[in-house]
Amino acid sequence: MRCRGQTKSAIEEAAAILRSGGLVAIPTETVYGLAADACDDAAVAKIFEAKGRPSFNPLISHVADAEMARGLVVFSPLAEKLAAAFWPGPLTLVLPRRTTSPLSHLTTAGLETAAVRAPAHPLAQAVIAAVGRPLAAPSANRSGMVSPTTAAHVAGGLGDRVDLVLDGGACVIGLESAIVYVEGDAATLLRPGGLARADIEAVIGAPLDRVQDQKNAENQSRPSAPGMLKSHYAPAAALRLDVEEARKSEVALLFGAPSPAHDAHPYAIQLSAAGDLREAAARLFAAMREADALCASETLSGIAVAPIPNTGLGEAINDRLTRAAAPRHGFAAGADSTHKSVDPQS
User: Fold this and answer.
1) What is the pLDDT of residues 109-118, one digit of tens each?
2) Dihedrals φ, ψ of 127, to 5°?
3) 23 φ, ψ (degrees, to nearest 5)
4) Taken in order 117, 122, 126, 129, is the CA torsion positive or negative?
5) How does DSSP classify residue 130?
6) Which of 29, 65, 76, 90 could form a disulfide with 177, with the two C-beta atoms 3.0–4.6 Å apart?
7) Dmax (CA) of the chain
8) E strand spans, 124-185
9) At how many degrees (to 10) do helices 314-325 and 277-298 cross?
10) What is d(CA 343, CA 346) in angstroms, rounded to the nearest whole number?
11) Is residue 229 helix, strand or coil?
């Protein structure tokens, strides 16, 4: 596997690899994605193979803009309004798939909907423009593991399973996109993410529903959106959540001003001393990786996470932590951060 920076020749090489059916890890503002031509069955199959991802888990197709997305899915007026407000940005829309859509059916896991997003990172946008086609791009990590927010995370997790890594620096948001299913004039939040619920509701003018999320969270054989399996985003070490005082045998993952006990803790990692949820979101996955490495190197019992307010981006942070702490079973520690299509009937 090779890693290249943000140069014109690197973008051209990445586009050539993608057009020929290869895999390229690309940065987005949320996390790094493992990209392939979303219209090429064989290329999309390589994503599932490289990640060890179950085929029932659909993928998000990344597009340049709403115009490209309209060739793949059917936009309602509400969907158009959301795209206009938040694209490019950390919002994935799940919409009815067009009968003429060129998307590989592997990206939608046989569902009648497809998940689409226009990423805000300039390098991701440059690659999509150079390829001229949508890119399926789940998180560039082994399925169920902690999502990557740097090129080094990708290299450490996937190695030679990816043909090229484009290094665009650390991801600014650090959490996967929020996923919203739009059916007519109704919108359902399937997964909280790097766009706060309140910001979406301000555009919609009504509260978001989460009925589908609760209904499908237990459906481990056919979840309706990415990141909805009960166990997900998981480090190797066990997590304890909402811990006021970590044990000496644990890594303390802190939020806000530490207590005197935490000041003296030998293994403390700070998400945000200022209690800034945006800073904590951007730091979350990197901090989980650091804590996991400490548990392994120092033979510690696990990771103790301080309470995080469940407001704004805290909702998405707590969602990731809850899934990371869930009992692990099945194919891996959980589903990866890839996006899924939604089955309105499921």
Assistant:
1) 889 999 999 9
2) -70, -45
3) -115, 135
4) positive
5) H
6) 90
7) 62
8) 135-136, 164-166, 178-183
9) 20
10) 5
11) coil
Q: What residues does 33 pair with on adjacent strands? A: 26, 139
Query: How many other CB atoms are found less than 10 A from the CB of residue 333?
Result: 24
What is the β-pairing status of strands 302-305 and 239-240? parallel
Q: What is the dihedral of CA 226, 230, 235, 239, to 10 degrees?
A: 140
DSSP characters for 101-127?
--S-HHHHTT-SEEEEE----HHHHHH
Q: How far is CA 263 from the centre of its chain?
A: 32
Question: Do residues 31 and 117 touch, judged by C-beta distance below 8 A?
Answer: no
Q: What is the pTM of this model?
A: 0.88
* Residue 323 to residue 229: CA distance in whole angstroms: 8
Instruction: Assess contact for 186 and 205: CB atoms under 8 A.
Output: no
The lowest-confidence range among 87-101, 131-145, 253-267 is: 253-267
pLDDT in tens, 286-336: 999 999 999 999 999 999 999 999 999 999 999 999 989 988 654 333 333
Give yes or no for a contact between 318 and 284, defined as CB atoms under 8 angstroms apart.
no
Alpha carbon separation from 11 to 131, 132, 201, 281 (Å, rounded): 9, 13, 36, 28
Burial zone of 249 (CB within 10 Å; 0-12 exposed, 13-18 middle, 19+ buried): middle
CB 269 within 8 A of CB 254: yes
Interatomic CA distance for residues 221 and 212, integer angstroms = 15
Strand order in the sheet with 178-183: 2-4, 164-166, 24-26, 33-37, 135-136, 60-62, 113-117, 91-96, 178-183, 186-191
- Residues facing residue 91 across a β-bridge: 178
**Residue 56 class from Cβ within 10 Å (0-12 exposed, 13-18 middle, 19+ buried)?**
middle
